[in-house]
Amino acid sequence: MNRINKFSLEGKTAIVTGALGLIGQQHCFALNEAGAHVIVADLDRQKCVAFAEYHLESSMGHQIDVCKRESITGLLKDVLTRYGRVDILVNNAAINDMFEDPKAATEQSKFENYPLELWQKSIDVNLTGVFLCSQVIGSQMVKQKSGSIINIGSTYGINAPNQELYKDNDGIQVFYKPPAYPVTKAGVIMLSKYLAGYWGQYGIRVNTLCPGGVQNGQTDFFKKKYSKKTPLGRMAEPDDYQGALIFLASDASAYMTGANLVVDGGWTCW
């Protein structure tokens, strides 16, 4: 095989959960441009269908609730009916806590005050959702004896959040990064390693892609502080992870499993 052709996903079928999110959309673009049929999977069926029809080729939109097994099973059934197989699963769906009232955010986001219901909701989506999607869709890959599962982690699953980033220019703490997101993302990294060892005998590869912070309307003080702590001197653009995703999805990474591919501008090297 030509070396460049190893990156091709021509004729492959890829499912992306949380596909309508900032990075999820970029995952869909990248996989489709590499030749894959992409299943745009998220909570809003109408928006998923529209995105697939207007922005992608030979792809489909589908509603999914990653916390409900029957929803995942229904998606898989429809994918197999249309495409006959599933080759790639990108577990991208996740919750990153946002507080509705900015004035109350400081107190609500403190660990001492952090609501149990938010903790549980993050575990349900960020960790149990990855577990269920991998279990249901990975079981089909076992039957095929091939497949690539890519779980989206975070640098906050490797290093604890630096709460100094959330102080404004006057040194006032406007927000604390809550514990649920880092803890669940650390769990995703270990789940990938577990599944890599468990399913390797069937030719299924399971890896984690760990992004750094992405520009998405953050305050100027946050972007400045984050960039200063990053060797490349900036936050990521939403499309900065496309190359890494295609690498993990394709035969270019055929001998890679159980790995945690960190793409963070150097954030975790300091």
Topology:
Layout: E1 13-17, H1 22-33, E2 37-42, H2 45-55, E3 60-63, H3 69-83, E4 88-91, H4 105-109, H5 116-144, E5 147-152, H6 180-199, E6 204-211, H7 220-228, H8 242-249, E7 260-263
Parallel strand pairs: 1-2, 1-4, 2-3, 4-5, 5-6, 6-7
Helix pairs in contact: 1-8, 3-5, 5-6
Descriptive tags:
seven-stranded parallel β-sheet, Rossmann fold, single chain
Q: Can you give a write-up of this model?
A:
The protein has helices at residues 22-33, 45-55, 69-83, 105-109, 116-144, 180-199, 220-228, 242-249; strands at 13-17, 37-42, 60-63, 88-91, 147-152, 204-211, 260-263. The chain is of the alpha/beta class and 270 residues long. It has eight helices and seven strands. It is globular. Helix 1 (22-33) crosses helix 8 and helix 3 packs parallel to helix 5. Strands 3-2-1-4-5-6-7 form a seven-stranded parallel beta sheet, with helices on both faces. It has a single domain (4-264), classed as 3-Layer(aba) Sandwich (Rossmann fold), CATH 3.40.50. Strand 2 (37-42), helix 2 and strand 3 (60-63) form a beta-alpha-beta unit. 40% of the residues lie in helices and 14% in strands.
